[in-house]
Write a structure and sequence with these properties.
mainly beta; Jelly Rolls; 0% helix; Galactose-bd-like_sf; IFT25
Length: 171
């Protein structure tokens, strides 16, 4: 598999809700965990990655710090709008059905209507584990969904500021 979320592959961050000149959103796509995008506080925060072509995505890896709740959405359009939920991490699983273990993650199934979204779909809810002195590394398997854009919506964090060091997308 090829990591398609690299600027050298043609991927671009086409939107970010915050930007720090020392830690710009483009750092997410340089393939290094030493560089990062830093939020400027307050939630939600988001960034959108655009691929040069429509990709069949099988695995998304996120290397971050202090992210608590993350939702990943996709679209297959030319424009970066009309997204569909792919995965969501960190939602409180009060009404969860079906609990499975995935390494250090918890997998729960819930209905979107329970979190006040209008469409009734089932999707995975996985919780990011808080780390004290190391990066959070989370792999999210997806079922070969096609995407031209991926939107990463950080709903909440363990602190006011979060950082995303690297996103890898295997296609």
């Amino acid at each position: 598999m090829i990591n398609t979320a690299l600027s050298s592959f043609g991927a671009q961050v086409v939107l970010a809700t915050s930007s720090d000149e020392n830690h710009p959103p483009e750092n997410i796509l340089d393939g290094k965990t030493e560089t990062f995008w830093l939020s400027t506080g307050m939630f939600p925060q988001e960034f959108i990655i655009r691929f040069p072509d429509n990709m069949k995505v099988s695995l998304i890896s996120v290397h971050s710090f202090n992210v608590k709740h993350l939702r990943i959405e996709k679209n297959t359009l030319e424009e970066a709008d009309k997204f569909q939920v792919m995965a969501e991490k960190g939602k409180n699983p009060q009404s969860a059905q079906g609990l499975h273990s995935l390494n250090n993650l918890k997998l729960h199934k819930i209905r979107l209507s329970e979190i006040q979204l209008t469409r009734l779909h089932e999707f995975c809810v996985l919780e990011f584990e808080q780390t004290e002195n190391s990066l959070q590394t989370n792999d999210i398997s997806v079922d070969g969904s096609h995407a031209t854009h991926l939107r990463f919506l950080i709903i909440s964090g363990y602190d006011h500021f979060v950082s995303v060091h690297k996103v890898s997308v295997e296609a």
